[in-house]
Design a protein that fits this description.
With 135 residues, the chain is mainly alpha-helical. It contains 6 helices and 2 strands. Helix 2 crosses helix 3. It is globular. Pfam families: Pre_tape_measure (PF23789).
Length: 135
């Protein structure tokens, strides 16, 4: 076995559009990796702390978490989607996408990042996340 045998999980999200010449677009979404977390901590430390502390106590489903984050912290949500789609330079464009598209992408990325659910994953990751937030 090799580390290269480990498959990096992703999901192809099909976005249906109301434009005839390009009615559907497929986008690959990945879970957030270590570099993504460091990037997000550097730009959104206070937001991350708020989200992690709240969700460590509540067992919200990923779609509910996605809606809450998008509604409260749209810039952070766009940054998460940009990282999860491996297109950080598209962050401003993502903010212009319709709300349902952003929700679908963000919830897919959260499901891939936290496959056991946010609360259970945070219990395991909390010491590491706290160290990042202290930087």
């Amino acid at each position: 076995m090799s580390l290269l045998d480990i498959i990096i999980p992703y999901r192809t999200v099909v976005i249906n559009q109301s434009i005839a010449e390009k009615s559907a677009v497929s986008i690959d979404a990945f879970g957030l990796n270590t570099e993504d977390f460091v990037y997000l901590v550097d730009g959104y430390k206070t937001v991350l702390a708020s989200i992690f502390l709240r969700n460590a106590k509540e067992d919200l489903k990923n779609i509910e978490t996605s809606k809450e984050i998008l509604g409260s912290f749209p810039e952070f949500a766009a940054a998460c989607v940009a990282c999860g789609c491996r297109q950080r330079d598209a962050q401003e464009y993502i903010r212009q996408l319709p709300f349902p598209i952003q929700i679908e992408l963000l919830s897919t990325i959260f499901e891939l990042t936290f496959p056991e659910g946010l609360k259970k994953s945070l219990e395991k990751l909390m010491p590491t996340i706290l160290q990042l937030l202290k930087k």
